[in-house]
Design goal:
69% helix; single chain; mainly alpha; rod-shaped
């Protein structure tokens, strides 16, 4: 019996994995907002 490689499936799996890695990378690149001063935000919004 000859071994055949399912090229279409391999390509699909690779693209799925690369997309997943890209989304994780993009989410990790965005800084997490901490210590938000609500009063300062309200004052800035009122100034506009």
């Amino acid at each position: 019996m000859a071994v055949t490689r399912l090229k279409r499936k391999v390509r699909k799996n690779k693209t799925k994995a690369s997309q997943r890695k890209a989304t994780i990378k993009r989410l990790l690149a965005t800084p997490v907002i901490t210590n938000v001063d609500v009063a300062q935000l309200k004052a800035a919004a009122a100034a506009h």
